[in-house]
Amino acid sequence: MKIMRAARIHLEWVIPWLTLCLLPPASSTVIVQTMHQMPLPSPCNYLLASECKASFERFNIQFQRQETNGVPTIKRVTLRLDGVDVELDKTSIKVNKEHVTVPFSKFGITVERIVSYVKIESKLGVVIMWNEEDALWVELDKKFKNQTCGLCGDYNGVQVYDEFFKEGQSVSLDYYEETWKNNGPTEECERSSPQDKRTCENQTDLCSNLLSGPAFLSCRNLIDMDSFIGACVKDLCRCNSTTTCLCSTISEYSRQCAHAGGKPHKWKTAELCGTVFDDINQSGCVAFDKCSCTHDGKSYKPGESYSRACHKCTCNQAQWKCMDMDCPGICSVLGGSHISTYDDKMYTFHGDCSYVLSKETNGNFSVIGDLVKCEISEESTCLGAVTLTLPHNMKFVVQANGHVMYNKLRTPLPIFMDDITVFSPSTFYIVIHTNYGFDIEIQLTPIMQVYIKASVQKKGQLMGLCGDFNDVEADDFRTTNGLIEGTAVTFVNTLKTKISCHDVANKIKDPCTSGIYKENYAKHWCGMLSDPRGIFAKCHSEINPEDYQDSCIYDTCAGQKSEEFMCAAISSYVHACAAEGILLHGWRNTMCKNYTTVCPATFVYDYQMTSCGRTCRSLSQPDLTCDIEFTPMDGCGCAEGTFLNDKDQCVPASQCYCQVGDMLVHPKQSITVNGQTCSCHSGILNCKGRHIEESCKKPMVYFNCSSSQPGEKGSDCQKSCQTLDTEICASAHCMSGCVCPAGLVLDGKGGCIKENDCPCTYNGESFKSGESVTVNCNTCTCKSRKWKCTDHECGGFCTIYGESNYITFDEKKFSFNGDCSYVFSQDYCGEDMNGTFKVLTESIPCGGSGTTCSTAIKLYLGNNEIVLSEERVRVIKQSKGEDIPYKVHTMGIYLVIEAKNGLVLMWNKRTTLMIKLKSNFKGKVCGLCGNYDGNIKNDFTTRNKEVVVDALEFGNSWKVSLNCPNADAAKDPCSLYSYRKAWASKHCDIINTNVFASCHSKVDPKNHYEACVKDTCSCNTGGDCECFCSAVAAYAAACNEAGACVRWRTPTICPIFCDYYNPDGECAWHYKPCGKPCMKTCRNPSGECFNHIPALEGCYPNCPPERPYFEENDMKCVSKKDCGCYDDEGNHYEEGKLWTSKDNCHYCKCSSTKVKCYYDKFACNCSYEGHIYKYGDTVYETQDGDGTCLKAVCGEKGNLTRTITICITTPSTTFSFGPSSTTTTETEEPTTTSTVTKNPTTTATEKPSTTAVTLPKTYTTTITEEPPTTPNDCYDFFNTWQNNVMFLQVRGSFIFSWKLHV
């Protein structure tokens, strides 16, 4: 007590400044940090804070003052953060001695400006803020506790007075200051004494009213308000009594109140701190409802709108409110192998048959596409013809050479019928318009490509390669038997229309690896699509060029005639832009120019060619094509004032096609006819081989077309188990061959079978009737060739792995690599912000290479903040939010957090993070994982609710701090580090090999292989295996989820050594590639999980019966008694251990893995004016100066028991309850009737607001005051402070140290 008094005398002039709670304050031990002002008149260089007690100093923060015209400011701040040097002064910022501009992000350090402050944040857990004048803040992560030195103290939880004692004796401020002086070798400095000569009007009453108003009623007795009143008065003095300077102080008071357990209410008004900075128009501070929006670099005021082809968006309070308009679905077949469905699913396959592109489920119409080998090319396939079948036996065939056949007769264009119009707006295109709810646009030059437009009335009524048009991309591979195939090839094989075609196989080979010249040619020309300053940049905000560029490079490398495929791919992007209303002109001046110069005689080229009014027919009768809406198209046609006649163009025989029935065969192309191999040469079909015999294997019979009836199709159109539901045969002529007799169909193995005995197919495999498969969380059973499945909701997955490769809930795949913290997923979306969870992610780099070494994660779950970083889990209790039960598991190499609200988070402690949500979250989440509504088209919805097409713009919008610098477009790492590509390609090829053969039909390896190569190229300065292994493990996890368990790790390829956990002589631990179900652990003794958790690879123990529980901390099997207990925050207690509960006045005890808590008055704590007192402690003892003594003691249930007695002697000092409480007066009569003695007593219960009592002077009154309520709201200062940080400040001529109360 004497030491404390001595300290108070030494520091009696010290004024408390700020408080910050380092641990959850509600009903538990609270550590409060208090700032104090100390004069530092010297302009010397000082050590503010450093990590001095560890073996390696990870941070060091120094500063130097200066005085100009009597005004003290901070001249320079120097930092060393994890080996990176940062120097700041008023004119420049240097990192490693190099000048940098703000914002800056590199080496694990971010430098940004927040209003008038420069903020430097290190991923170490250190944050520094400087206003470039007189204020400097430092925040430290809790992990640095008891590790620091400097003016800010040792951060050891002991009160500030310990900083001023050495060997039990108090030290002077001069000595303390001198201890941390850190001048350079030639630097000298002298002390000076700053004086504040300013005199101002006393504004104490105004400040007291502000801080004791209704919004802060719950803050009374929790924190010292006097220090904030003093700061407020100084603020008003500095700002000439205007209230604009008060915002920081009041914000800090509100935040500290919440940290201490109060419930501050909304205090900002339109007149007081109710504006925001207009960072869009740079117009200063404005009311929030006056904030503008931005789109495509342009500013829009509130109420202004912009429109796209299918959307109209209106600006409202800095966010877009967008309304979808009814627009047709568009399906395209590009380059002969790339399909984009109505619901935007994109896939590639190389077919050699006729396939159902789109078909109405009720059979009104169907579109068939003939895919064949391109001329002289073994790599590429081409679209050879498009067949349209309509009611009333109408059939139209458009061939690649532009010929149009109607019911087998070649028919000149245009064709006008009751429900259909066929015409050619240019030599490059043919348009088919129908009254059946769909149109077809067929491109002919330079190669055949097709675009099918379906009206909104057809939603959910379609099937085929183009999908079902239900706005759900994930089910586009659903087959007629009801299941969703895992890969494109297994899906398209179910939609063949000819039984004679072979099933296609998955082509994994990259065609660009076969020729360096072709690859360079493709990347040069195709790369122009994504040039941000190029001729196509005008369209980038509406149509992302990334997929078109990839397809362009692929086709250009694969095709024999590279320029044709390149120009076709470029024109497909131009067509997509035109469909969105963006017309691109002049692009053929740079590339593909020859197509503008080879127009037929008398024809001209135009970027918007039309045939409306330019035919000879239009001169004598109305041109019906003029009323048809279609995408603007380029090509050759008649110039204005000229008219098209019915003449055809001729070609030499060497360019002629061969004709087999109604089928066209390209020159030098080979086909199979009646078992013979035939090729086309100069228009003649030459055949070799033995003609098929008329004998067939029983029960099949031979069908001879020469003796058949007109219209019969023969063997090519007989039914099989695969084509029973197709109902369409695109064969143009009769084909002789073996067929099954009536009542039987082909079984796909060369035999015949009854229709009801047909097997079910899934992922390329056949299953007999009665056999079952597992699809996600459902069981599907084959019955009469159809799958019958259980209807459990399986939830959705979102994944990030490797160098920031994302797969959203709706299966959109993209890459985005930023250095900030981002919203991975949350349900704080839309108008209702009462969410239950938020997941934030941040990439942790490996040194200065930029390569991602790990991912730091924060999960806000109800009233818990769960931090996952450096393979550790920390739980921080929040003052707001509901209590959501959760469990933490170690499952293989993953750390799993599962919550009762339906969220499961799985982290491999490196770069892979998966979250799984129950279906009740559908359409209610937002962030980098998309909105989980099944519609892949709107997955790129930004924070301000605008749907964009660019992954970079989308990702940057979900930064946690909007002041963190935007990520830039990433360059291809294999181009930057070309020497890495061969190594990366070789090792990543394991994904394409037989090691994963069982998975290739379930999960397309293409995207995972490309991501693996990219990530492995990125690891150019080490971590080769880490990047490679993470990418392959991600594919293995996807295979596992799809039902293919792959054991791919070996002692030389990404090994996991489970034997490390085996004690000598034991063999309990083993590697399991597909994990184990929920285990009995000490954290989860029941062995039951809230949710279905997928099997996760890693090391698992086989615990013996006598030790059946897995202890995750020690990674060993233990008995129930040795398990101990875990509390809600993950803290472990041994069996029988007693500890203080987070609920006041309660002890808890560990008993057989269960925590049992009970009331005990000796566990009670009381809170008064920011201090914590134990049961029985005297809180204060004073008198009122008028002979009445007052005493308060910490009592039961955390209540203050106050006693008022007549003093025997009158002390010289008086006690004031302070201005923070209102005063009520109550007069209470004694409850006894006995004779009054000298000091009889009476007790009364006092509400928290009661601060003074008037009673007869001969009585003693005991008053019980209830403790403050738990926290509710927390208003963050600059939206950056967190509950788990230390907060230090240097201001002007003072240094603010801190003290800790326990």
Automatic annotation (TrEMBL):
<feature type="domain" description="VWFD">
    <location>
        <begin position="796"/>
        <end position="965"/>
    </location>
</feature>
<keyword id="KW-1015">Disulfide bond</keyword>
<dbReference type="InterPro" id="IPR014853">
    <property type="entry name" value="VWF/SSPO/ZAN-like_Cys-rich_dom"/>
</dbReference>
<keyword id="KW-0964">Secreted</keyword>
<dbReference type="InterPro" id="IPR036084">
    <property type="entry name" value="Ser_inhib-like_sf"/>
</dbReference>
<dbReference type="InterPro" id="IPR050780">
    <property type="entry name" value="Mucin_vWF_Thrombospondin_sf"/>
</dbReference>
<feature type="domain" description="VWFD">
    <location>
        <begin position="19"/>
        <end position="190"/>
    </location>
</feature>
<dbReference type="Pfam" id="PF00094">
    <property type="entry name" value="VWD"/>
</dbReference>
<dbReference type="InterPro" id="IPR001846">
    <property type="entry name" value="VWF_type-D"/>
</dbReference>
<feature type="region of interest" description="Disordered">
    <location>
        <begin position="1218"/>
        <end position="1247"/>
    </location>
</feature>
<keyword id="KW-0677">Repeat</keyword>
<dbReference type="InterPro" id="IPR002919">
    <property type="entry name" value="TIL_dom"/>
</dbReference>
<dbReference type="Pfam" id="PF25962">
    <property type="entry name" value="TIL_OTOGL_Mucin"/>
</dbReference>
<feature type="domain" description="VWFD">
    <location>
        <begin position="329"/>
        <end position="502"/>
    </location>
</feature>
<dbReference type="Pfam" id="PF08742">
    <property type="entry name" value="C8"/>
</dbReference>
<keyword id="KW-0732">Signal</keyword>
<feature type="signal peptide">
    <location>
        <begin position="1"/>
        <end position="28"/>
    </location>
</feature>
<keyword id="KW-0325">Glycoprotein</keyword>
<protein>
    <recommendedName>
        <fullName>VWFD domain-containing protein</fullName>
    </recommendedName>
</protein>
<dbReference type="InterPro" id="IPR058753">
    <property type="entry name" value="TIL_OTOGL_Mucin"/>
</dbReference>
<dbReference type="InterPro" id="IPR001007">
    <property type="entry name" value="VWF_dom"/>
</dbReference>
<dbReference type="GO" id="GO:0031012">
    <property type="term" value="C:extracellular matrix"/>
</dbReference>
<dbReference type="Pfam" id="PF01826">
    <property type="entry name" value="TIL"/>
</dbReference>
<dbReference type="GO" id="GO:0005615">
    <property type="term" value="C:extracellular space"/>
</dbReference>
